[in-house]
Amino acid sequence: MSKAPRVIYWFRTDLRLHDSPALAAALDLKPECLYPIWTWDPHYVYRARVGVNRWQFLIDCQNDLSQGITRINKNSKLLVLREAPQTLLPKLFKEWRITHLVFEKDTDAYARERDDKICEIANEMGVRVITKSGRTLYDSDLLVKTNHGKPTMTIAQVQAAAAKLGKVAEPLPPPTHLPDFGDLSLEGVEQEKPQPEPDFNRTHRTGDEGSYEGGIAGPKGDFSVPTLEELGLQEATTPHRGGESLALQILEGVISNETFTATFSKPSTAPTAFEPQSTCLTSPHLHFGSLSCRLFWHKVQEVLDKYKGKASEPPTSLHGQLLFRDMYFGAQAAIGYPFAQTAMNDHCRFVPWHLPSKVDEKTGLITGEYEVDDPQKEEWFNRWRDGKTGFPWIDALMRQLALEGWIHHLGRHAVACFLTRGGCYIHWERGAEVFEELLIDHETACNVGNWQWLSCVAFYSQYYRCYSPIAFPQKWDKEGAFVRRYVPELKDMPTKYIYEPWKAPIQDQKKAGVLIKGDGEQEKEGDLSLYPKPIFDFPKQREICINGLKGAYSVGLHGDSPKVLDGTWKEMFDDDAEGPTEGHKGGPAGSLDEEHAHNTEDLNPHKSTPSKKRGAQTTLENTFKKART
DNA sequence: AAATTGTTGGAGGA
DNA sequence: TCCTCCAACAATTT
C-alpha cells in the first residue's frame, strides 16, 4: 500500500486559482497535504530586469492569491520561500517528506533550463513531477510541433496550427477545497544565499537588498509575502494593481460591454487615451497568471456567440490579441535562448545597429552590457529612456512607461520604431532591456518578439513604413492632451506646436511658460521651464535609417551567420554603415542648434526628398557593393 | 512567375 | 472619410 501523496504545488509565474490545469492535477492526487509555495528565484531578483512597479504588481498578486487560498482553507496560505528553487526544492523534498512536485510548464529559455534541472533532481530523489501547460491557449511545444516543428513566425501559421489542434481547452473552475499543509519545520534546512552579481536592479534599491536576509521563511519566519521595503526597493508609482480578484473584475467589465468585446479592433484603439485607456489592460494579469488566457478566450467567445452585429476577427480582435501571444511563445519555445538576442538566432536579421550587445564568448549569450560605438548614440539612447528626446510624443510615452509601467501597444510601436529603424538606429536589444525593466506586463516572449517586429529584424519587414513622432499622434490626439498630461512643461503650449514645440516662436514659448532649449539636463531657467531641443532632424534620420535597413537586407546576414558571430560582418559594411555620410559624420544634432535658433525651420518629413534620395541611393551602392560581389 | 497578403505609415486629394 | 500613391519586404497563393 503506497503512502498518501504529500505534494508541493509550486506557483511560479502562474499565480492563479482559476483555470490552473496544474493545480487541478495536484488536487486529483487527493493529497494528504499540499504546500502551495512561491520561491524567490535570485535570477528574478538580480539577473532579470525588474523595476519597482512590476515588483509591486507581483506582490499584489501574491497577497491576493494567498488570501484566495485562505478563503478556501483557513489553515492554508501561500508560502513564500527565499531561496533559488534549484537548491531549495531538494531540501524541502527531504524535510517535508514530499512525494510529488506539481507546477505549470514554462517555456522561457531560462525557466526551461532551471526546471529541467529540478526535474532531474526530483527524479533522483524519487519525487514524482507533474507539469501541465497553462500559460498559453495551446501548449507552445505542441503548437510548434503542429507548425511542422518550426517557430511560429506569422499569425496565419498559428491559426493553421490551432485549426489542427482543435478548440482552446475549456477553463477549469476554481478549486472548492485545498488540503492543509503539513509540518512547516525547516530544522534540517540551511539557506543558501545567492550570488548577487551582476545585479541589474541595483538602481531601484534605496537600501540593501534584503530578500535573502531573514532566512528562508522571511524576517518574521512565517513565510509571508515580502514588502517592497524588505526587498530594499523604492515605492512603486504605478496606479495599476495586481491580483486575481482585480483581474476578474476587469474581465467582467470588458465582457459586460458586448459591443466593445465583439467589435474590438486593436489598430483602431487610441494610444493617446488615458483615464481610461482604450484597451483593457489585462496584459500584466496574463503575464503573472492572475488571469487565465483560456478563461478570457471563452468569455469573449460567449459574447461573440450571442452578438448580432458584425464582429471583428483575428488578428485585430480580442481573440487575435491572444493568438499573437501564443505566436510569440511558440517562436520562443522553438528557438530557445537565442530567441531573445541577435547572436545565434537564425530567425533574426543582422543589422549593424549602434550600441550592440556584448556577447559572452563561452556561452554565446548577450551579457547585458553593450559596446558604445559612438558616444552620441549613447546620449540619444539615454535621452530616449529618460523621456528627453525633445519629441513630445516620444517623451510623453517614455515618461508614462517609467511612471505607470504600461503604455498602449501602438505607443510601444512609436517608441520602438523611433529607437531603432525609424530614428536612432540603435540596437533593438537596448530597447527590449528598458522595456523589460519598466513594463508591469513584461513577458520575454512578447517583448522580444515585438521589438524584433518593430525593428524589422523578424516577423515584419516593411521598414519603409515608419512612424512619425509628429503625424502619428496627430491622427489620434489633435489637441495633444496626452502630451500635456505626461510632459507638463508643455501643458500650455499652443496646439499648433504641441508635437513640434521647437517650431514655436520664442514669444509663444514664453507665454506658455517654457523655453525649448538645451538637452534636458536643466529643468528651469528663471520662472520658465525648459524642454529640450530635439535630438536630431527626424526626416534626415528617417532617411538614414531606411537606407541602412535596405543595405542590411541586401547583405542578408542573420544572427547565426558565421560573419556575425566572428565579427567579420564589418567587412560587408562601410564604417558608417547606416547610410549616407555626406558630411554628417559629426551627427545631424550638431547642426540642429543653428537650424533652430529661430524656431522656424520646417522639419516636416518628406519635403526635401527627390534630389536627396538619389544621393542616398548612390551612397548606398557604394556602401554595399562589396556585399553584392 | 506573378499576384496577393500581411493586425496598426504618411501625404495628398476627392 | 475614403482612396491612391509612395517605393518596395517576404511569405504564401495562384
UniProtKB/TrEMBL annotation:
<dbReference type="InterPro" id="IPR036155">
    <property type="entry name" value="Crypto/Photolyase_N_sf"/>
</dbReference>
<dbReference type="InterPro" id="IPR005101">
    <property type="entry name" value="Cryptochr/Photolyase_FAD-bd"/>
</dbReference>
<feature type="site" description="Electron transfer via tryptophanyl radical">
    <location>
        <position position="451"/>
    </location>
</feature>
<dbReference type="GO" id="GO:0071949">
    <property type="term" value="F:FAD binding"/>
</dbReference>
<feature type="compositionally biased region" description="Basic and acidic residues">
    <location>
        <begin position="593"/>
        <end position="605"/>
    </location>
</feature>
<dbReference type="InterPro" id="IPR006050">
    <property type="entry name" value="DNA_photolyase_N"/>
</dbReference>
<keyword id="KW-0285">Flavoprotein</keyword>
<dbReference type="InterPro" id="IPR036134">
    <property type="entry name" value="Crypto/Photolyase_FAD-like_sf"/>
</dbReference>
<feature type="region of interest" description="Disordered">
    <location>
        <begin position="190"/>
        <end position="220"/>
    </location>
</feature>
<keyword id="KW-0456">Lyase</keyword>
<dbReference type="GO" id="GO:0043153">
    <property type="term" value="P:entrainment of circadian clock by photoperiod"/>
</dbReference>
<feature type="compositionally biased region" description="Basic and acidic residues">
    <location>
        <begin position="190"/>
        <end position="208"/>
    </location>
</feature>
<protein>
    <submittedName>
        <fullName>Cryptochrome/photolyase FAD-binding domain-containing protein</fullName>
    </submittedName>
</protein>
<feature type="site" description="Electron transfer via tryptophanyl radical">
    <location>
        <position position="353"/>
    </location>
</feature>
<dbReference type="GO" id="GO:0032922">
    <property type="term" value="P:circadian regulation of gene expression"/>
</dbReference>
<dbReference type="GO" id="GO:0005737">
    <property type="term" value="C:cytoplasm"/>
</dbReference>
<dbReference type="Pfam" id="PF03441">
    <property type="entry name" value="FAD_binding_7"/>
</dbReference>
<dbReference type="InterPro" id="IPR014729">
    <property type="entry name" value="Rossmann-like_a/b/a_fold"/>
</dbReference>
<dbReference type="Pfam" id="PF00875">
    <property type="entry name" value="DNA_photolyase"/>
</dbReference>
<feature type="binding site">
    <location>
        <begin position="279"/>
        <end position="283"/>
    </location>
    <ligand>
        <name>FAD</name>
    </ligand>
</feature>
<feature type="domain" description="Photolyase/cryptochrome alpha/beta">
    <location>
        <begin position="5"/>
        <end position="137"/>
    </location>
</feature>
<dbReference type="GO" id="GO:0005634">
    <property type="term" value="C:nucleus"/>
</dbReference>
<dbReference type="GO" id="GO:0003904">
    <property type="term" value="F:deoxyribodipyrimidine photo-lyase activity"/>
</dbReference>
<dbReference type="InterPro" id="IPR002081">
    <property type="entry name" value="Cryptochrome/DNA_photolyase_1"/>
</dbReference>
<comment type="similarity">
    <text>Belongs to the DNA photolyase class-1 family.</text>
</comment>
<keyword id="KW-0274">FAD</keyword>
<feature type="site" description="Electron transfer via tryptophanyl radical">
    <location>
        <position position="428"/>
    </location>
</feature>
<dbReference type="GO" id="GO:0003677">
    <property type="term" value="F:DNA binding"/>
</dbReference>
<feature type="region of interest" description="Disordered">
    <location>
        <begin position="573"/>
        <end position="629"/>
    </location>
</feature>
